[in-house]
Design a protein that fits this description.
Number of strands: 19
CATH architecture of the largest domain: 4-Layer Sandwich
Helix content: 25-40%
CATH topology of the largest domain: Deoxyribonuclease I, Chain A
Low-confidence stretches: none
CATH superfamily of the largest domain: Endonuclease/exonuclease/phosphatase
Number of helices: 10
Number of domains: 2
Shape: extended
CATH class of the largest domain: Alpha Beta
Largest sheet: 7 strands, mixed
Distance between the termini: 52 Å
Structural class: alpha+beta
Strand content: 15-25%
Strand order of the largest sheet: 3-4-5-2-1-17-16
Length: 416
């Protein structure tokens, strides 16, 4: 899929605009020319929130802005291909006029989250910047850890090229110097293990810079595509498309992603019950199990004639009797300390008593005796541990040599 980030300056159609046609039609035509599936739009200037379909352009626009009674200098939204918009199971969730999210359903277990942002400019107050990053932080916190994320938009921040100070966040191919807004963005990326993909591809500066300063005429990189650090291999390229034109001073940034679907880690099937059949070696246990099973089998009505019902009933009685008499088998991890608990506990208690005597009433005690006890305790622990592993290795080798593979792979267990 191809994702885009574009500061369109405005989507409003005013008489004073020099645009020859509707702004949404121009944007849709340019996005279709570069085959962008989902574009994050910033600085839309549209009021409230809404949806518009460009049938000729092939894109559906979603936006979020301030109310029509307030001055609008921000606004965010999405432009989504019509065929993709028809398949959406969830509409975009608008957090504010600066943050909005879109959740794409890839299959039953995989989702892809696209976040469109428009950050405050450098001259805005710290309160406005703090509010924006609080909204973005809450948005990131709501995304499950296993789901993929891409942040797109105009962050109005210069992150620089100091990749050594921000490992795994910045790449080796950054542009320019960092400013205060860049510090905020880099801190957020480091906190949530995100990577700025614009700085990770070796491209000419003209294919990285997205905005030219109106006074200095210097080009800067302030529009970004950001993903999780574990997903950086899925991004094939992130670059600027210089040919895209929609009467804005920002360039279109595209990020081409090769989406890799993840399978669920846990199976939905219930785990089978493991019965502790070793208890059947005990004569009393076998007798108790036989009596319990006989009493339940005798209560089954065999006159119904339904073979499947009788089979399910008998199977249930066999399992219930085994659970109640034999118990379940629970895997128990073997540990050298637990198997030598008596010896080690006694040695530790002795050393602890010496410590208490040494520290009580500031009498000092025998320092040499305390030091010798410490050395002896560590030596005893090492000897017991080494002996346990040597015995375990010899036992495993014996099982392999005698071809007792069932016993070799059988976990140690206790009944419950």
């Amino acid at each position: 899929m191809i994702f885009g980030a574009w500061n369109v300056r405005t989507l409003l159609d005013r008489e004073s605009n020099a645009c020859p046609e509707r702004k949404t039609a121009i944007v849709a035509r340019e996005l279709r020319r570069y085959n962008v599936d989902v574009a994050a739009l910033s600085e839309t200037h549209l009021a409230d929130e809404g949806q518009l379909v460009e049938h000729g352009g092939g894109y559906t626009f979603f936006w979020k802005g301030l109310s029509s009674s307030e001055p609008r200098r921000s606004g965010v939204g999405f432009a989504i291909k019509n065929q993709l918009a028809k398949q959406l199971r969830e509409c975009p969730i608008h957090i504010s006029d600066r943050v909005t999210t879109l959740r794409l359903h890839l299959n039953d277990q995989n989702f892809f989250n696209v976040i469109s942002v428009y950050a405050p400019t450098l001259d805005k107050s710290d309160d406005v910047k703090d509010q924006f990053y609080e909204e973005l932080t809450r948005c990131l916190d709501c995304v499950p850890p296993m789901e993929q994320i891409v942040l797109l938009g105009d962050f109005n921040a210069r992150v620089g090229r100091d990749f050594e100070a921000w490992p795994e966040v910045l790449g080796k191919h950054g542009v320019g110097n960092m400013n205060s807004n860049g510090q905020l963005l880099l801190s957020l990326c480091a906190q949530y293990h995100l990577a700025i993909k614009n700085t990770m591809f070796r491209l000419p500066a003209k294919h990285k810079n997205t905005w030219m300063h109106p006074r200095s005429k210097h080009w800067h990189l302030i529009d970004y595509a950001i993903v999780r650090q574990r997903d950086i291999s899925q991004v094939q390229v992130t670059r600027v498309m210089r040919g895209a034109h929609c009467w804005t001073d920002h360039r279109l940034v595209i990020a081409k992603l090769r989406l890799r679907l993840r399978h669920p880690r846990r199976s939905e099937r219930s785990k089978p019950v493991c019965i502790n059949v070793d208890r059947l070696n005990d004569r009393e246990a076998r007798k108790t199990y036989a009596e319990a099973l006989s009493s339940k089998i005798m209560s089954v009505d065999m006159s119904t004639g339904d073979v499947d019902t009788i089979r399910r009933t008998v199977s249930s009685h066999i399992l219930d009797s085994a659970k109640s008499v034999l118990g379940k088998r629970v895997r128990k991890h073997e540990d050298w300390f637990d198997e030598s608990d008596t010896v080690l506990t006694e040695a530790i208690s002795k050393h602890r008593r010496l410590l208490q005597q040494h520290s009580s009433a500031n009498q000092g005690g025998n320092v040499m005796e305390l030091r010798q006890s410490n050395i002896s305790l560590r030596k005893l622990s090492r000897e017991i541990k080494d002996k346990w592993w040597q015995d375990k290795a010899r036992h495993m080798q014996l099982l392999v040599d005698t071809n007792q593979l069932g016993e070799f792979y059988r976990p140690k267990s206790v009944s419950t």
